[in-house]
Amino acid sequence: MRDLPPTATLRAFEVATRHTTFTSAAAELFITQSAVSHQLKNLEDIWGLQLFERGKKLSLTPAGAALAPLVREFFSKLETTLADLREQNGRIRLRVNTTYSFALKWLLPRLPDLARLHPEILVTLESTDKAINFASTESDVAIRFGHGNYPALHTEFMFREQLFPVASPALLQRFGTPGEPAELLRYPLLTRDGAELVPKWGVWFKLIGINTDVLPESVRFADTNMTIAAALLGQGIALARSGHVEKEISDGSLVRLFDVPFPSPAAYYFVCPRGIETQPHIMKFRSWLLAESQQAQLSYR
């Protein structure tokens, strides 16, 4: 590219855009004021554009203002990438895409075990609730919640959760502990709004033989984590998936109500573009993930 100037000249321009005088810019660059002035004049000659209005104070021309963020972004990305490469130091980065709630509640607590087992793998977690499209993302692999119909991808079943009501000890102290499922109709119920994959109180009540058109809803939430957080605050009873309340059930901050088997209609699946599943670092991650999933499945029965 004939219009690409030396890096030192670009750096002088980037620094000068953040200062009001050549003198202060020179101080940051550890060069003389005349050297800064010369580099900027050289850059203007190369590009055939006036970049600064020169007076008592430096100010950018419209052309300079348009180019300044591009040059700043170039140096920022260069520094970030170099730092990232130095940090890896022989490790292999693996970008894992999943939903935010699953990453926070299930995957994140288990990642230290992966790091101990495979310290050479450097995991980057990326979260979205949208359908994965590997053609438009930098993600290497993904964990998806659904019915397993991903025909264009390599797909492996992980586990299926159970659905059950949970409440905080404080709420049960205020309202009393229900003796049978029908009694939940006098409690405030926390509802997770959303698509058909979201746990629904109406479906749960129908499963246990209770038909009701009106539920004593408290608040509707657009996010699983908010629903669980509201249950922890004693605001109502949530219909939770087992993988999202492991810690809370274990430490007693939430109590499972009723041992009614209700498998989730959807399950978790490992997916990736076909062909890359045999790459060594992906095989290691798959093996670890599926072993963790198998253990989880046994505890969710």
TrEMBL record:
Transcription regulation as UniProt keyword: yes
Q: Which UniProt keywords apply?
A: DNA-binding, Transcription, Transcription regulation
- Gene Ontology molecular function terms on file: DNA-binding transcription factor activity; sequence-specific DNA binding
Database matches in InterPro entries:
LysR-type_TF_proteobact-type (IPR058163), LysR_HTH_N (IPR000847), LysR_subst-bd (IPR005119), WH-like_DNA-bd_sf (IPR036388), WH_DNA-bd_sf (IPR036390)
One Gene Ontology biological process: DNA-templated transcription
Q: Which PROSITE patterns match?
A: HTH_LYSR (PS50931)
* Residue span(s) of domain HTH lysR-type: 5-61
- Report the sequence similarity comment from the record: Belongs to the LysR transcriptional regulatory family.
Give the matching NCBIfam families.
Answer: PRK11139.1
Name of the protein: Transcriptional regulator GcvA
